[in-house]
């Protein structure tokens, strides 16, 4: 069970990293490659990242919680991170705030999974 939890955390961290890469690197590539600009601005990409991140995070933290009770701060960090990703995907509160909100959400979510992995290895 420990190995599958490690894989879930690693997968969730990788997905958060992909979100971060999407938000920071793709706009630079989009300036050079018009085709990448179309993909980077596609709304379905944001929705896809959130649709993948939410169940992976939920399952990873649920499994971790079954082994060792998770602190409220870990659950709150994951929930806030997912909400920020969702807000960014929906363009809320504005289109201009989409990238910073998504970056903060990705970092918060990845940090929560790193903390969870650290706690698991500590026990």
From TrEMBL:
Q: May I ask which residue range the UniProt record assigns to the signal sequence?
A: none
According to UniProt, the name of this protein is: MerC domain-containing protein
Transmembrane as a keyword of this entry, yes or no, is: yes
The alphabetized UniProt keywords are:
Membrane, Transmembrane, Transmembrane helix
Q: Which domain of life is it from?
A: Bacteria
Q: Tell me which stretches of the chain form a coiled coil.
A: none
User: So where does this one cross the membrane?
Assistant: 12-32, 44-62, 74-93, 99-118
